[in-house]
Amino acid sequence: MAKEKNPSPSSATSQPKSPPRSHRRRSVKRRAKPPPPLFHRQTAMDSNGIGETQSDIRREIASLEKAKAEINDRISALQARLDYSLKEGSKETNLCPLRPTETPFNGQLSADMIYRYSRHLLLPSFGVEAQGNLLKSSVLVIGAGGLGSPALLYLAACGIGRVGIVDNDVVELNNLHRQIIHTEAYIGRSKVESAAAACRAINSSIQLVEHKEAFRTSNALEIMSKYDIVVDATDNAPSRYMISDSCVVLGKPLISGAALGLEGQLTVYNYNGGPCYRCLFPTPPPTTACQRCADSGVLGVVPGIIGCLQALEAIKVAGAVGEPLSGRMLLLDALSARIRVVKIRGRSLQCEACGENATMTAQQFRDFDYEKFTQSPLTTSPLKLQLLPSEARITSREYKEINVKGEAHVLVDVRPAHHYKITSLPNSLNIPFSSLDGRLSEISEALEREELIKSGDASRAASLYVICRRGNDSQRAVDYLHKVGFTTAKDIIGGLESWAHDVDPKFPTY
């Protein structure tokens, strides 16, 4: 979370009296940074729009949104303290409860802890001992996205003593339908910062550690070594192998979840002699089978369900209660409302990571190339293929000029039909790449019609252009079209995303 500084004069008047000396330094740090003075801001009203660019306006909006988020955080914290004091009838000196790290847990819960976690304590199968185990434990959550959001909220709420958050991404608008820990006020800001703020608003008595960096072989062991339990909330194959291997090297239990489309799965690896990820998947799946939410979509509530279950498994492991999902896997089919738990193979004696003759050491882990091993990238950036020569491709700006000049052409959109319904360019012909070979006659007919309409002469050839979402399937399609006789077909570089970025900023992206 961004460093909080002195609150604005308007918020300072609503604060309670100063806390005891032992709390003053911490409360000063928690104050919100005031917004910039009005006379330092140049607005459209100041200049009547003269000389002001869209970039200036965006920067102004971003600055105001940041100030608004900090003020809202401060208000939420003050309101929570006020509500607590009114409910308990406590003195102002008790408004900021001590962190567990400041009051070592010796098996005796404080009055505040008893009241906060009372519903846990009432459970005969949980009680004081399990709650004490949570307060003494630490959990590292890798990924503050769809899975990590609910997991983090519940781990913070239940009283895990120390929670670490790893992510190097920023909050985007298209995250919010599933990543419920983030809000609109944090768009464009660090996910770790946003998640930590939300967790602190729920439980200010726990320790939150922010790791605003990518989880890589160079830093994985150093970060992970400081925690008892690991929650894998990532969504790509190289990360899964890397996190599992690092857990094996350090001897950490791993709570692994996955969600895609309308399905999800969950299991616990490397726990009490159980299998690791490599035991089940010694060979990486083909890249075509490794789909991501950004490409295939996901119903927002599905990672929410799996993320909650990841928190549950972490609580069971940390609290030493129940029967964690080691050696078993939970499978969720959201569309049919079916949940199954299946037995999975046990630890493999031949596993390269945890088997009897395994040689995975810390140094070998650091030197291992997980992107090469899985043939897929660690980054979330979309794949960019380079299949065609430059003469078989045009830019989105060049295609715009073709439209403006009214040149005879046909534009084939090779996205799936349900993508085409989301948005499309005018007068494009939707032929999904998967059915292209069976619909070549439609392309020929469309070219003939275009030639007659534009020139009245079917002998004058119309051009053929192909577009998709990001410029990958369109290259595959053009490569195929060249082989079957449409030798002049060209791909539009970057697809519809390039059109939205370079030609029409108002064109919808998804």
UniProtKB/TrEMBL annotation:
Biased composition (Polar residues): 44-54
Record-linked Gene3D superfamilies: NAD(P)-binding Rossmann-like Domain, Rhodanese-like domain
Pfam family, one: ThiF
E.C. designation(s): 2.7.7.80, 2.8.1.11
UniProt binding sites for ATP: 146, 167, 174-178, 191, 235-236
Region (Disordered): 1-55
Substrates-to-products reaction catalysed: [molybdopterin-synthase sulfur-carrier protein]-C-terminal Gly-Gly + ATP + H(+) = [molybdopterin-synthase sulfur-carrier protein]-C-terminal Gly-Gly-AMP + diphosphate; [molybdopterin-synthase sulfur-carrier protein]-C-terminal Gly-Gly-AMP + S-sulfanyl-L-cysteinyl-[cysteine desulfurase] + AH2 = [molybdopterin-synthase sulfur-carrier protein]-C-terminal-Gly-aminoethanethioate + L-cysteinyl-[cysteine desulfurase] + A + AMP + 2 H(+)
GO molecular function: ATP binding; metal ion binding; molybdopterin-synthase adenylyltransferase activity; molybdopterin-synthase sulfurtransferase activity; thiosulfate-cyanide sulfurtransferase activity; URM1 activating enzyme activity
Job of this protein: Plays a central role in 2-thiolation of mcm(5)S(2)U at tRNA wobble positions of cytosolic tRNA(Lys), tRNA(Glu) and tRNA(Gln). Also essential during biosynthesis of the molybdenum cofactor. Acts by mediating the C-terminal thiocarboxylation of sulfur carriers URM1 and MOCS2A. Its N-terminus first activates URM1 and MOCS2A as acyl-adenylates (-COAMP), then the persulfide sulfur on the catalytic cysteine is transferred to URM1 and MOCS2A to form thiocarboxylation (-COSH) of their C-terminus.
Protein name stated in the entry: Adenylyltransferase and sulfurtransferase MOCS3
Organism, as annotated: Buddleja alternifolia
